[in-house]
Amino acid sequence: MKLLKWALGTLVLLGVLLIVGSLLLPSRTHVERSITIQRPPAEVFATLNSFRRFNEWSPWFAADPQATYTYEGPAEGVGAGMRWSGNQAVGTGSQRITESQPPARVVVALDFGGHPSMATYTLAAEGPGATRLTWAFDTEHGYNPMSRWFGLLFDRMIGGDYERGLARLKTLLETAPSR
Predict the structure, then answer these.
(1) Any idea what DSSP says for residue 51?
(2) Cα dist. 42→33, 34, 38, 83 in Å?
(3) pTM of the model
(4) In what order do the strands lie in the sheet with 131-140?
(5) How far apart are the C-alpha atoms of 64 and 122, rounded to whole Å?
(6) Do the Cβ atoms of 147 and 141 come closer than 8 Å?
(7) Using one digit for the tens of pLDDT, what is the confidence trace for 112-137?
(8) If I label 134, which of 2, 12, 31, 79 is the partner at 20 to 30 A Cα–Cα?
């Protein structure tokens, strides 16, 4: 009986430590990656300001080529949207452009089943005919202890995906004829 009380007390103490510890963790997660693409900002912007070519460079498309995609709203700019439903690797979700500032910035609202987040594409001219593109991901955790602990893993979880996606976008745009 003494051992059971000790084990229960230890579990309660660990639970309290996890919850209190989570309050010391950031309530927000930010992940970003950048790349230079040898195309002018207007050309890069045109690809990012619509979801019609997203799967040509998306790092997740190959994880489930059988996933279904539907497009909503205008073809480009604010209001353009895309929904997807796929296997466990891809999941279900949606994204919608909420801000479009040619040729410098596109902001996308992401929803992965009730957990809203934002992706931001920031473009800056870098030399003649080149663009520095930064792809950022931001999400709020609020007071959810598990979400805050999980937030510590986001950079490792999606950072590599962002790097692969940016590399694919670079290849796509640099091998296409210049507009």
Answers:
(1) S
(2) 20, 17, 12, 26
(3) 0.85
(4) 28-37, 131-140, 116-125, 105-111, 92-101, 81-85, 68-72
(5) 28
(6) yes
(7) 876 789 999 999 999 889 999 999 99
(8) 79
